[in-house]
Amino acid sequence: MQIEKQKLLKKKYPSLFRKSTIIDCWDGWFDLIDKLAEELSIDKELKILNIMSSSGLKLTFNKTSNELDKIEESYRLKSLKICEICGKPGKLESIRLLDLPRVCCENHK
Ligand SMILES: [Zn+2]
Fold this sequence. Notes:
This protein has one domain. The chain contains three helices and five strands, in the order αβαββαββ. The strands form two sheets. A three-stranded mixed beta sheet has the order 1-2-3. The site of zinc ion has 9 residues, from loops.
């Protein structure tokens, strides 16, 4: 994700992100991560250590719980329908030049 957008999220949810938190996915998921962060930021003890793209949105937290697993899974399922590049409706595809499947729309296949 572009550094400017990462900074925006970190500024908006200071308790949730560390400066060192890596947001390793493309910009199309920005709104999804914004919503997720809004939901999670209620818990002031919770930190997101890492965000990545691995068959959908994947997160690492500083703690684990069933509740967190449920939230993560629900957002992973949402991410599977959002193009990771532009945010339009998409599905999981193997993208040219990349080994890993990513969620993308018709334009970004
Ligand atoms: Zn797209």
